[in-house]
Amino acid sequence: MGQSVMIVDAFTSRAFAGNPAAVCVLESARDDGWMQNVAREMNLSETAFLVAEGAAFRLRWFTPAVEVDLCGHATLASAHVLWETGRVAPSETAKFHTRSGVLSAKRDGDWIEMDFPTEAPQPADPPAGLLEALGTEAVAVARNRFDYLIEVDSAERVRSIRPDLTRLRKVEARGVIITAQADDGVHDFVSRFFAPRAGVDEDPVTGSAHCCLAPWWEARLGRDTLSGFQASARGGTVHVRRRGNRILLRGQAVTVLRGELVDGAAA
To answer: I need a surface site. Which of 84, 127, 252, 257 has the fewest CB within 10 A?
Structure first.
């Protein structure tokens, strides 16, 4: 019998926008090599693997190249799948054991709210070649345990950046966040996220990056409830709210594919 897989567009209310994630709910744990091969075959920025663990689920995330420590959009997609397939009741909270501790998600009408750790950045000097790879000057540079954050002078600059991915791949970090205050009258800030070192040239919508963006923009705008738009080609909205040392991320999700890994692929 094959292994089921679903593809869900996260941080969007319509298909073919937001960030697609593949979700596999496993009967039992699989070896790392198999999961990496499946993620490479899916060729999406992340593939999530879930195994029931008591009343919760063990959740792991793989890009086509590596396993990652924290992923927002594939967690959102995973919760959506658990509710849609009846593995978790719609009124119940989905709980996950991950490499970044216990994460949870609950439904609020058409929205999903996730409880994630704050990943606040600290001011940092840009490493050699970073700004040159981005082709921009910076208003400020900071770093957390995952990524560099580069604030630039306008939302238009965020949208127009065309990075040199070969040079950016040499920067020793999971990825690089580019951000500026929004100019659309709807959102508070805009961003983009590049992670060629992790096998993702540009991620469409990055939930974990908003664990960094939320405290950054709270300090600048003086509000702990904010709305961010990730200005990738697909685009997506992430609502954020700080609660102590946690960040609540809100988004929507849409299933676009249900399928099955067959024969040797599922073995």
So the answer is: 257
Same-domain check for residues 127 and 239: yes
Same domain membership, residue 134 and residue 82: no
Residue 228 tokens, joined: 């961010």
Do 77 and 168 share a domain, yes or no? no
Query: Hunting for tokens 């090599």 — which residue is that?
Result: 33
For residue 24, give the nearest of 1, 46, 4 by alpha carbon.
4
The parent domain of residue 12 ranges over 3-107+252-265
Catalytic positions are 46
Residue tagged 């909205």 (tokens): 237
- HEC assignment per residue over 116-144: EECCCCEECCCCCCHHHHHCCCCCEEEEC
Q: Tell me the C-alpha distance between 191 and 179, whole Å.
A: 4
Going residue by residue through the chain (267 aa), what tens digit of pLDDT does each one get? 568 999 999 999 999 999 999 999 999 999 999 999 999 999 999 999 999 999 999 999 999 999 999 999 999 999 999 999 999 999 999 999 999 999 999 999 999 999 999 999 999 999 999 999 999 999 999 999 999 999 999 999 999 999 999 999 999 999 999 999 999 999 999 999 999 999 999 999 999 999 999 999 999 999 999 999 999 999 999 999 999 999 999 999 999 999 999 977 877
User: How many structural domains is the chain composed of?
Assistant: 2
Record the pTM: 0.96
Q: How far apart are the first and last CA of the chain?
A: 9
Specify whether the backbone of 139 is left (phi greater than 0), alpha (psi in -120 to 50) or beta.
alpha
Q: How far apart are CA 129 and CA 133, in angstroms?
A: 6
